[in-house]
Input
Amino acid sequence: MRKITMKALLSVFVIFMFAILFAASLRAEAPSREDAQEQVLAQAQAEAATPEVRLIPEYRRKEREIITEEEELPWDIDSYFRYMPSVDAQNQGGDVTLMRTEEDFNYTFKAFGRLPVEFSLNHEYISIDNTTAVRLPSHLSGLSLGIETTFPFFNVDKTYWRFAVNPSFYSDDYSFDSSAFRIPVQTFLIHQPNDKLTLVAGVAVRPGYDSEILPILGFIYKANDRLTFNIVPKRPYVAYKLNDRLTLFGEGGFNFGEYQITKGIYKDQVLKYNDAYAGAGLQYKINNNIQASVSGGGTFGRYLRYRDKDTGKVELENGPYSEFRIEIKI
Output
């Protein structure tokens, strides 16, 4: 398999971003009738609601950073399947094939009539087909519950504080061993200087992990009705709306986790999984409740490594990925 370098991947990603910007400059068209109706409705809702009522996240993941107008549909389901075909391990014999799935179920309501609260259930599964000399589990799994809410940040204009806590189990099994239990916490400030720009800054606190504190930094910029820059963890992307149903996007991000091994010869060890990816895809709006997307690109910087370095590690060559995702609002 031909080696895909990080430089090449980043070059493709940058070229794709410029292509989107160029397309946006050529298509400064008036919004569609559907878009116009949505804008009128959003404006009416904004005028009728206080700022804290309208703090409902658009993209719901473990780290939720986005503010949008109020949604009438309380349930949000986000699920994806990502396939990473066999690649060689670096500096050792054998190869590894990975398949990753994740499902995120969210329910949002208003406590006391005005405070937005979200409950979530997240499940992830990583299948590992390994032929190297290092013994790896055949799969890794994660299950987490979450609750988050958003408050006005004292009297600072257009600034809000969001807090989320996620009791979780990450292991190689579904036995819910106490050693696999973690309670990650995210807390960050959200500032909206204007209707187009949202700034995010904060920290993720992860007791029990090697890296217990991670920064949360990013921004969302809606250049116009078609072009959006969503540069925040966990799934940064740039999207250009081709029409009422089709959206072209470039994406990139990181995955990193730690899993408590509960069986086999490496029982009670912690296995770390890291990767980065960059690619592009197309999203299709099936109806007002369902949208699906397909994407592909490259992965790099991947490794599976036991926390005890003497136990073993597998660092993988760069390789491709393909992904199918579906999002449902009900």
The mean pLDDT is 82. The radius of gyration is 21 Å. Residues 6-26 form the longest helix (21 residues).
